[in-house]
Amino acid sequence: MIKFKVVVAGAKNVGKTSLIRRYATGKFDKSTLSTIGVDFETKKVVVDNTEILLNIWDFAGEERFRVLFPSYISGASGALMLYDVTNEDSLNDLYDWINVISSVPNAPKTKILIEAKIDLERKVKREDALKAFEKFKFQGDLISTSSKTGDNVEKAFEMLGREIIKNSLRKCTKCGELYPLEMKFCQYCGTKTN
Fold it and tell me: Domain span at residue 20?
């Protein structure tokens, strides 16, 4: 099984913890408290017949914790960037989060933009989110989710896994196994990469 570290970032109260818990447990708790520092979940998922283990790091959205974020990004293969469709400031705040992630050496190659809380009345224009999506060259599609109803939660993480595999692994031409792009030989059969 292939393991990937992913980070989840976004402003305070955009629904990061609720999204992760809904994905990991299938449950929604409306009394979820704000994360203090960092939280962690793990979940196995099958993406295109490949079993992967996602180590999901939930990072607090408060500004006072943001200086710690770069040290947690290290080694991450992907990032889910969330904003709350009911809060325009949360979309604007993504610019800061992207700058923090981009400033880290070996920053995650895969970044997915997630709209959270679509079960509530939208106050942020989708066109504005699409502009941010294009500006920062997010991968996949802009996905609208609701942790409360479960809409598109699984889809968001499956897309993240699929994009990470595409951006981080290659398939061996001899044995068919997936291995990291940066390796010069397949770790399973020893075939040299092209």
Answer: 2-169
